[in-house]
Design brief:
The chain is mainly α. It has one helix at 2-11. The radius of gyration is 22 Å and the shape is elongated.
Length: 51
C-alpha cells in the first residue's frame, strides 16, 4: 500500500486502481455458454485421439 500511495502522490489520485477495470465501457463481444460442453470436468476418454 505504501508503494501505491507513493504512485498516487506523484501522479495523482485514482492513478492506480485495484480489482476493477479502469475503462467501464461495454465490451464489443460477450462470452456465451451455448457451445460449452455439459461436462464440467474433462475426461480423458472425451479427448479425440489422432493416429
Amino acid at each position: 500500500m505504501a508503494a501505491i500511495d507513493q504512485i498516487e502522490n506523484r501522479f495523482g489520485k485514482e492513478t492506480v486502481t485495484i480489482g476493477r477495470l479502469a475503462n467501464l465501457q461495454k465490451p464489443d463481444w460477450y462470452m456465451t455458454a451455448s457451445n460449452r460442453s455439459p461436462c464440467y470436468t474433462t475426461r480423458w476418454t472425451d479427448i479425440p485421439a489422432i493416429n
